[in-house]
Every structure is written in structure tokens, then in C-alpha cells.
Amino acid sequence: MRKALLRTGTAIGAALLLTACSPGGFNSVELSNDPSAGDVPEITFETPVEVEENQTKVLREGDGAEIQDGSVLLAQAVIYRGSDGEEVGESYSSGAGQILKVDSDLKERLPELYDALTQMKVGGILAYSSPATAGQSGQEGDNSTSVEVYEIVQEIPTQIEGEMSDSPDGLPEVTENDDRVPEFGEIDGDAPDEMVSDYLIEGDGDAVEAGQTAVVNYVGARWEDGETFDSSWEAGAPAALPLDNAIAGWSEGLEGKKVGSRVILSVPADKAYGTTEELGEDSGYPTGDLLFVVDILAAVDTPEPEPLPDPTASVVNEGDGDEVDEGDTLLVTRATVTNGEPGDATPSVMSLDETLKDEDSFTYDQLKDAKVGTSVDITTSSRAGAGQISESTTRYTVREIIPTEVDGLMEPTPEGLPMVTQTDGGDPEIAQPERDAPDDLVSEYLIEGDGPEVEDGQTVAVNYVGVRWEDGEVFDSSYERGTPTAFPLDGVIDGWSEGLEGKNVGSRVIISIPADKAYGTQEEIEESGNTTAPAGDLLFVVDILGATDTPAAASASPSPAAASPSPSE
Q1: DSSP tag of 144
Q2: What is the pTM of this model?
Q3: Is 338 contained in some domain?
Q4: Mind listing the pLDDT tens digit for each residue in 386-438?
Q5: Which of 122, 400, 470, 519 is 20 to 30 A from 294 (CA-CA)?
Q6: Pair 184, 105: CB distance under 8 Å
Q7: Are residues 195 and 97 in the same domain?
Q8: Do 211 and 131 reside in the same domain of the chain?
């Protein structure tokens, strides 16, 4: 399986970190095949390669347009280890290529590369090597340098031609500066509810197809304040973006549009990155409804990535508890394994149901044959951006088999607390509060189970619903999400740890929590910046499904819901 090559920034700008060969070794570099479009060039050379200064060698001149200063190129790359000639990475299988701008910046940083390129034509292939990569194998005494091979796949137009038409009704005016870079006029009014994609300049190239890689210049601004959050013109080079990896507004807005066009897009938040509430204040992504002007310079087919390696599993410890069956719900802990050592364990609830079987059949198969107490390391591979493939190992430990609900008839709600009833499915419902909350913490059984008592600092598996005393609004519910959750009591608000400690597993408990043992008052929450947390006095109904000792240095998970105001502190 080929290893994908991660390239960042201007395509060959990373070459300073990735190159190699000695005069003899590098001079021996030759093509051993005549690759056609999309094929990886294969080379031979004498090893080891060790260079003392940057070197280039043209392996194929090319038969396309001459490359000149100012050319914008789409390039692919493959890197070979200078010590033994082994391929260590390539970009062909991970994308349509990266953008390389042949300009004064490249001439200043990598003059040898600039000079070689400007003597070539599109379709050409060159080898490059630099002493900056000496010793990157990590082996003692190895001073070999890498051999990088670049193929110039295509020349990209630097701008589109034509006169701009007016923006569609309801969208801001777009003008051009002296360099023909588009600029938004005043952005006022509300964004359209639906996606808008229209030509400002209609080109005459082929229509962009689903799944292709679009080579574009673009500028993006927020509807809310008109702020420009991204611009390839400011970055100095176009971008090559696979539409399958873009936000929905881009893939939908550019598919079917002609190469050589300038397009204006109005993208609602649900087809962009999301709202501020969904992403948080510090997400780093532009939130809300967005505007883009996009120049479509080219569109090329995106290669199909090679399949990921199959996952593997290794049993670390064979448990001696109850056997797990299909359909069971488990309280497990998960820990990332690095260099054979597990990190902090995070608790979670996993149901061995059809959903897990469909989404992650390998993990499902490992857990359904386990016993309580079993630990198994599962290693999986994933795509880590720009085609790079990374491996990660997670240690799953089965702590308990837990029920999905508690059994028994509910007792009347304690005096002073709102009535709690049950749905037909057995989920609790809290009536609208009609009086003030108690001053102190209240924790009482609605159903008293017969399991062991929850101990200080344990990890609990629960279902729960939470409402605000002020208005009865449900702010969080694991019942609505359809799955229990788990977390250490050392990592939750005081009202939860105090309210659950000493209660029996298998119980349903109602807990009234004053603000000073919850998240605080509205003023305190605003000062803390935790704007998603519910303010004031709170009321919870909690089903205690299981409890187990918390592993040393366990991390509280972002439960009960990653984006919800859970009992986690």
C-alpha cells in the first residue's frame, strides 16, 4: 500500500523539509517508467544519496506549455528515502495535486527549483534533493537525504476573463479592485433562507462535476458583520479543494458551474460550518450564514483513495466476569494507547445493537465475545487530511453489563418538588414547577433499587433529564438522545456527586440542586464564558444503571452530550 504524502502551504514550499542526495547518488537518478497521467513516477538511483547543497535534475522535459515566471501549476509528488531507495510517500492517491506558484517568492526560497522549472514544460518531471533532510531516518550515522520527484500535471489560469454582471437580488454588490480581485460592497439585510449560487461571470469551460477537485480563487465573508474571514487572493495562490471534503454549500454551489466562471454563493449556516451556538465562541471557524465569491480556474478528477488497512485487535487482559451477549449495553472505559501504554481512561456506554454493528462492526465483534473485565486494544487507521493515513490504538475495558432502564413503580414526588410522571416508554417527565426551589439540595428516591450503593468518586452509568426551576424548560436529556451516558462523579457539578453518592444502583432519583451547587446564576455563568450552561436552580431525574470504580487519572468525558450543558463541571 502506498503511503500518502502530506503537503502543506505552497505545494513545494515544504521541500525545504523533505529533500536529498550525494553528487554521485543524485546524479544517478533516472526514471524507470514513463508514467502517463495519474501514474506515480518510479525512479532508480545509486544509494546512499547525500547532497551538500540543493540539487535538481530534469527527468522528463514535458511536452506542454512552457513554464514561465508567474505560472501557476498543479503538481504531484513522490518521495524516496535516500538510504535505500524505498518510497516513503506520494500525493497521487490522496488528491488531484497541490498548487505551485512559480514566482519571486519561490525564486528566493528555492532558486535551484525555480531555475529547473522555468526550463521545463507542463508534463515534465524533475527530481530534487536538499541537505535539509539529512538524517531524517532517525538511524544513527545515517546522513542520507531524500529524493523528491515532482510531476507538473497542469498549468492553471491566473484569472478568469469577462465583465461582471450585477449580483442577484438580495445579495450585496460585488466590485473589483485594480488587480481584478472581487470585493463585497456593504453587506446589510438578512441572508436568504436558502442556498444561492449564481454567475457573476459565466465561463465557457466544462461544468464542474460532483466529487471533482476545484482549483479556485475565492473570498469569504460573514453575513452578520461583513467581515472577510478567508481569501486565497490574500494568501497569494489559488487553492485545490476536493468538493467531497468541502462544506455542503460549496459542493452544491459549484457543481454544474462552468470552469472559467466567477460565482457568488450565499450559504446558510446549516450548509456551512454551523452557528456560534453549535460551534462555540472559540471554534476558529466562521459561524452563521456566509458569502463567497469564487473564481473557478480549473476542475480535475479527484483520485479514489486507496482503502484503509483493516483494523486489528489484541486482547490485553481476559476478564473473568459475566459473558457479554449481543444486544447487551456495556459500561466501558476507553484509553488511547501510545507506545504500548494507555493514557487516561474515559468512561462511556456502548450498546451492542444494530447501530454499532452497522457503524463499527469490528469493535462490535470484539466486544460481543468478551467477558466483564476484558481489556482489548483495537488499532484503526484514518485519513488525517491531505491524504495522510494515521494509526491509533484504543484500549476498551468492559466494566459492567448494565440495564437500559430501572424496574419498579414510582413513588409520589417528595413534597415541594414538581410531579414526575412516565411516558408509555417509561421515560420520566417533569411537570412545570409551580413554586420556588428549595434552598438546600434535595435527593430522594422515586424508585429504590436493590443494587450496591454508589460510592464517592465512582463512575456512574445513567439516564437523566434536567429542567430549570425558573421555567421548567428541558435543557438536556439522555432519554431524548436514545442512549445512556457515563462519567466520573469527581468530574460533575457538586449537586450530582452529592445527590447520587449513597443511592442504590437500579434506582430512579429526583435531585433539586441550588445554583451554587450547579453551574451558578446567570450573571456568574456570563462572567465564566460558559454560555451554554443552564443558569439558576435545577431539577434532575436520574436513573442509576451502573456504578464502577473510576480508573486512576480518569478523564471526565464531555458527557452526557458533547454540545449540551451536562452535569460535567
Answers
A1: -
A2: 0.63
A3: yes
A4: 445 789 999 999 999 999 999 999 999 999 999 999 999 899 999 999 999 99
A5: 122
A6: no
A7: no
A8: no
